Automatic annotation (TrEMBL):
Protein name: pectinesterase
Pathway membership: Glycan metabolism; pectin degradation; 2-dehydro-3-deoxy-D-gluconate from pectin: step 1/5
Single GO MF annotation: pectinesterase activity
Highest classification ranks of the organism: Eukaryota, Metazoa, Ecdysozoa, Arthropoda, Hexapoda
Keywords, sorted A to Z: Aspartyl esterase, Hydrolase, Membrane, Transmembrane, Transmembrane helix
A Pfam family: Pectinesterase
Amino acid sequence: MSLKNSYITAASTPEGNSYGFVSKHSTLLSNEEATSVYLGRPWRPYARTVFIHTAMGSHIHPAGWHNWNNEENEKTAFYAEYGVDVTQRVEWSKQLTEVEADLYTMENIFAGEDGQWIPNASAKFSCSFGLFYAVLVVVMFRFFGGGT
């Protein structure tokens, strides 16, 4: 839940990674004070953030994405959406095709660059923030030495 005008993500995806932050079948909520919230901005170049079939309230800034005051980030960041209205988004963001959106599966996201690490496929994640936070937790766990 957004509590103030800010950014939902600040991705620091390593260059060459296929997946970064992923929000799928989620709902973005806010309190009354949050009236202009961006979907994301890059923490570093090559940030990757994708929202697929995500319900977004009026608190989401029409531009959607912010370059963090660095136009070079527009050349390296990958910000994409599918299943939402993107008519007012920044021109350097992407609208995924159905085929591209279908690639964002648990197996593909969690496979890692070596294709060896896949969580239990029977695991169910049911929270209002959807897959995004499940991915975040697992990626942090793996990045900080919890997974192989």
